[in-house]
Amino acid sequence: RAKVLASVLLMSALGMVVAELTSFVIQGQRLDARINAALAQEVEEFRKLATAGVNPETGDTFTSVDQLLTVALQRNVPDDNETYLTLVDGTPYQYDFATRPVALETEPQVLAYVRGLRPDAPVRARDVETTAGRTRLVVVQVSVAEQPTVGSYVVAYAVDLERSQLVDITRTYSIVALGSLLLVALVGWVVAGRVLRPLRLLRDRAQRITETDLLQRIPVQGRDDIAD
Fold it and tell me: Distances from the Cα of 51 to the Cαs of 30, 147, 165, 189, in angstroms?
């Protein structure tokens, strides 16, 4: 009985663990893909605005990097765990005023990375450690014709904060899986006991039969293999 139950629990637990790990990996990959897609979309929108060189609301041409960065911030609403920062010649200029997962202008690693970029640096996603944990950011360097000023448009996602939701889901799954295993153990113990009861009865009666006592009989119940 114990061996049968142990085998059932072992296979059940193994299946649950494999399912949980597989789900965690797949959800993590989807999360990374979603974050990368969101960053790419923000970069594309900013590039369109900078390439046009015109304020969509007023129709006026941008005459300075400051104006371009200000309009870009005004036209974007950050998602959860997303934030923006603009810099002018390496100095923090403006940021979004929504609830921010991390204050990028106070993060040394973020500022050092942005200030170390060339004015013509390609846009690449980069993971940086911040007070909010691992944060993925992209930086678009921009300038206005005939002006030496270089602006930096930074879009960042707090990856660890975003993943914390996934960890919470995994933790909940683990608790539910543990409860399910306990239920399987309880039901399995009862079912295994009922299934093996005829074998115990057979064993007990067989032990009582001797060469001089052949009157012991075993009641037959059911139509399964044990009954036969």
Answer: 31, 16, 37, 71
**Can you tell me the distance from the alpha carbon of 195 to that of 109, in angstroms, rounded to the nearest whole number?**
65
Helix, strand, coil abundance in the chain, percent, nearest 5: 55, 15, 30
- 85-98 burial: b if 16+ Cβ within 10 Å, else e: bbbbeeebbbbbee
Would the CA dihedral through 185, 190, 194, 200 be positive or negative? positive
By percentage, how much of the chain surpasses pLDDT 90? 46
Confidence of residue 108 (pLDDT cuts 50, 70, 90): very high
Half-sphere CA count of 164, side-chain side, radius 13 A: 11
CA angle 185, 187, 207 (to 5 degrees): 90
Query: pLDDT tens across 156-173, in order?
Result: 999 998 888 888 888 898
Beta strands in 60-218 (DSSP E): 82-88, 91-95, 126-130, 133-142, 151-158
By the 8 A CB rule, do 1 and 189 touch? yes
Q: Which residue do the tokens 């139509």 mark?
A: 223
| The predicted structure's pLDDT at residue 40 | 93
Q: pTM of the predicted model, to two decimals?
A: 0.75
b/e string for 137-151 if b means 16 or more Cβ within 10 A?
A: bbbbbbbbeeeeebb
**Residue 165: per-residue pLDDT:** 82
- Token digits for 49? 């605005």
